[in-house]
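Pipeline run #58 for the internal structure catalog. This entry was flagged by the ingest filter as a single-chain record with no existing model, so it goes straight to prediction. Upstream metadata was stripped on purpose; only the residue string is passed forward. Reviewer on rotation: M.T. Logging verbosity set to normal.
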Amino acid sequence: MTNSNKTPTGKAKKGQITVRHDSGSVKACFPRSYCNKGQIKLATGISLVDGWESKASQLQRRLQIELEDGKLDDGDGVFDLGRYNNILKEYGLKARLKLAGTTVAPGDMPPKPELSLMEVWSAYCDYRKHDLKESTFENVFMSCYVNFIESAIKATKSEDALKIRNWLFENRSLINVKKLIGHLSKAHHLALRQKLISHNPYEELEKEITVKGAKGKKQNEVQTESDDDVLDTTKAYTWNEAQTILNYIKNTPQISHWYSFTKFKFFTGCRTGEAIAFMWCDVLWNKEQILLRRTYDNQTKRFYPTKTAKGDQDLIRIFPMPKDGEIWNLLKSISQGELSDIVFKSKRGKIILDNVFCRAWKGNEVNKNKGIITELVKQNKLTKYLSPYNTRHTFITHQIFDLGRDEKIVSAWCGHGELVSQKHYQDIADRAMQINPELSANQQSLQQTELDLLKEQLKKQQELIEQLIKDKQ
């Protein structure tokens, strides 16, 4: 291949075409100097599935030849969208194409081409990108949901909304499916407003999905990932069951390195990401407190501050750590590192990966890993499987239903602020710091009463001493 072809000005064309992943889809990106429209990026119709890079490479080589032969413009610097579309057809591709100021010859393209499902989703993600938390955008919208959609398309060999919905309903967690279908409806509504499609096949489909009881799902397929049901005792282990889990981990050499991490989760009610991100600088020995002020995201490999329930500002939660109590002794049993070091590490001394912990928790047949909970269920020591997130539910229900703790106090400790408005959070947090989470409310009340009585006695003794001193004078 040579770059011998000339533009009307007599100069050789410069630049290379690239076909790459761009904003959630595969696009052909033309050099800025190619025509008078500036840089051009066009959809290719290539799906982001295994092997897409090979097809993208083939298309790139063909487009580069067309560009160097001068076949992608009309001779006056105007891009020939019709020619580009015909090239896509040769490769069995179809894409929604639009180039301002370009006239396409009749028959070269459909008069009102419809976007593919992935193109609708890509446009929606571009629209939502700036109003979503970075980790949510990358982990949920661009990873989890894209995986769901592509798996459904591949399995059903279709983009029919009902087939997609039904496959997801049968093969993925219902809570996530309901949310995804709702977003697909919003995505198509956005495309409708832009007149890119003619109808919304997902409209109101999510209303037909109920997640109560997760009907049709096995127990170990039920995922609980929100704080909407923290007071649902069916989604928590009893405190005796929690002790059974901890004892099993502690006394099983192959998994005993998970003991401290798991106990910390059970005894603080913190989220998995918060336990992973917990550092030695968060341990205030002199104040008998610990701080929960950041979380770690395995997908982006970054730390993020914890948020309020509304997510509108950073939140540092203070948790009481009575001297010689469970948490105090747990942290004392771990070799302390630098203040910036994480407290809980993997067996190899690295940062914990939540998916690795999940495999240890649930098990993995491929690696012949029995799984902590799965094995205890088989041994009839537990009655059900609950995800690692439910250690949080267990702590909350234990505090409220077993120890009689005020819900607002527990909310201040755990940060599931549906029960506590941000306006009153600090007042409640101050009160929460005066309470020992390892004692029942009755014991705490009795202890407080005895303390008040002792204070009163000391006060009277001091008054008596002062009076005796005065009398001697």
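catalog note: The chain has a mean pLDDT of 76.
catalog note: The domain at 117-217 is CATH 1.10.150 (DNA polymerase; domain 1).
status: ready for reviewer M.T.
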